[in-house]
Design brief:
Blueprint: H1 2-15, H2 20-31, E1 36-39, H3 46-57, E2 61-65, H4 72-76, E3 77-82, E4 87-92, E5 99-103, H5 110-113, H6 115-122, E6 124-127, E7 130-133, E8 139-144, H7 157-160, E9 165-167, H8 174-181, H9 199-210, H10 216-231, H11 241-257, H12 265-276, H13 291-300
Parallel strand pairs: 1-8, 1-9, 2-5, 5-8
Antiparallel strand pairs: 3-4, 6-7
Helix pairs in contact: 1-3, 2-11, 9-11, 11-12, 12-13
């Protein structure tokens, strides 16, 4: 089990150079049955990471390019009249896959963005009054460009909260960028990646993550962190109960990835900013909390003894 997960990380490290921490967070998000938001400038490797992850895990993959004219039916599918049968037949949209890349999700209108909500939360799509289950496992990786770029629509708080983890890949280190300049185009190697897992094995791993043990002391620490966000004057509101559960699930997945069946405070600390950062709004509700005050709160909250 641990050997297989290490193989996944190692193969992804060969495609996304110098970003092992972000790779582990993406895998943690999937193991915890969450959804991932990657926020960065264009050309940073967001799409490459999503495609490589699906390839290594042996999962079906679809990509949706979000644009201003994208319609909800372009995501979920629609009923089309069949003249020969004189009836309407539902044609599945690209959302019916195991790994879906919602590329540049904040370039679509809020109406189209909302088409993802039911799928992300309920793992089903409802059309013409009929609910249709999505494949298992189901994992949404959404990418978004910085808000200051032209033609973007900020994601509403309700949709941000659907993402378990938010990461940013950032600029590569100079030595890594030099390899790219020398012609080492890793994106072309994705097709050569060998699947390490399959859908059923991943589902088993997700169940094992849910069964990870948490002590009363660990839960005290988690509650102290959640309470600290609610008592702080830095943000317009604190972490919701769903946000607290998201933090616990991510910490369990980090412990599982580390080869343990119990959670340590260090696991909570490792996933703190990626889980909490996009859930805390500053007093100006249009600004997402920066990492600095989030990290400061973590440092100021003592670990119960």
């Amino acid at each position: 089990m641990q050997h297989q997960l290490n193989q996944v990380v190692n193969q992804l490290n060969e495609i996304i150079l110098g970003k092992e921490h972000q790779i582990k967070l993406a895998l943690v998000c999937l193991l915890a049955k969450g959804h991932l938001l990657i926020e960065d400038l264009p050309g940073m490797g967001k799409t490459t990471l999503a495609h490589a992850l699906a390839q290594v895990l042996g999962l079906d993959f679809q990509r949706i390019q979000f644009t201003s004219d994208l319609l909800p039916a372009d995501i979920t599918g629609s009923a089309i009249y069949q003249r020969s049968e004189e009836t309407f037949k539902f044609h599945q949209g690209p959302i019916f896959t195991q790994v879906i890349l919602a590329d540049e999700v904040n370039r679509a209108t809020p109406k189209s963005q909302s088409a993802l909500l039911e799928a992300m939360e309920e793992y089903q799509v409802t059309s013409e009054g009929v609910s249709r289950a999505l494949p298992e496992p189901f994992f949404v990786i959404a990418t978004q460009n910085p808000f200051h770029q032209i033609g973007t629509y900020p994601l509403p708080e309700s949709q941000l909260d659907r993402f378990l983890i938010r990461v940013s890949l950032g600029y590569p280190e100079p030595e890594v960028e030099r390899l790219l300049f020398k012609g080492q185009e890793t994106r072309n190697q994705i097709a050569d990646l060998q699947p390490v897992l399959n859908a059923q094995k991943l589902i088993d791993f997700q169940q094992s993550v849910a069964d990870i043990n948490t002590s009363e002391t660990l839960l005290d620490y988690l509650q102290a962190l959640v309470a600290a966000t609610r008592n702080s004057s830095s943000w317009s509101h604190g972490i919701s109960p769903r946000g607290g559960l998201a933090l616990l699930k991510a910490a369990k997945a980090w412990a599982f990835l580390d080869g343990r069946d119990f959670v340590l405070p260090e696991d909570v600390q490792a996933v703190w900013s990626p889980v909490v950062g996009h859930r805390l709004m500053t007093q100006n509700v249009n600004d997402v909390a920066t990492e600095s005050p989030v990290e400061a709160l973590l440092r100021s909250t003592a670990i119960p003894r």
